[in-house]
Amino acid sequence: MPKLDLTRIERRTGSTYPGKLRATMDGRSSLRLGDAGGLTQFGVNMVRLEPGGMSSLRHYHLEQDEFAMAIEGTLVLVDDDCEHEMRPGDCATFPAGDPNGHHLINRTDAPAAFLVVGTRTPTETAYYSDIDMMVKTDTDGSRFTCKDGSPLTADQIGDDNE
């Protein structure tokens, strides 16, 4: 079963972000290739961004390395340094603990895609560079809070019905 049949892998949409932040991921979908192949030590996802879509809110990981490679279309990598155009074959790396907040955006009028590979650790903390939010993940799931650990406010996340 080494060769994956991409047509048989569930395409995931949506986001685990709280409240109104969930809508920021409209236009993003992914195939969990590593899960489909039974990988347990690292994750591999093929992420598709429709025009105007973005991969995530700008963030960085404390415990997990991340690698991204553009495979279709043109993307823009936004990080703390500047913006970098990413075309098929272009790669970017984000070592664990490096506070360089990053995400990919599709600013074209055609779909674009990239592969992302990341370490799987039992726990993780990620910080969001442009807003006062962090996420802590462990065996009980993920919890979004302010960076100091206090609860997110209604002003920060809005209402799910908005």
List keywords for this structure.
single chain, 162 residues, mainly beta, 6-stranded antiparallel sheet, 4-stranded antiparallel sheet, 2 helices, 5% helix, 40% strand, globular
Fold and architecture overview:
The protein is mainly beta and about 160 residues long. It contains two helices and 13 strands. The mean pLDDT is about 95.
Q: Briefly, what is this?
A:
It is globular and about 45 Å long. The chain has two helices and 13 strands. 5% of the residues lie in helices and 40% in strands.
- Describe the sheet with the most strands: 6 strands, antiparallel
Q: How many β-strand stretches?
A: 13
Helix fraction bin: under 10%
Question: Uncertain runs with pLDDT below 50, 5 residues or more?
Answer: none
Number of helical elements = 2
Oligomer: single chain
Strand order of the largest sheet: 1-2-3-10-5-8
> Shape from CA axes?
globular
N-end to C-end Cα span: 44 Å
The Cα radius of gyration reads 16 Å
- Kindly estimate the percentage of residues that lie in beta strands according to DSSP: 35-45%
Instruction: Return the average pLDDT rounded to an integer.
Output: 95
Question: What structural class is derived from the secondary structure elements?
Answer: mainly beta
Element order: H for helix, E for strand: EEHEEEEEEEEEEEH
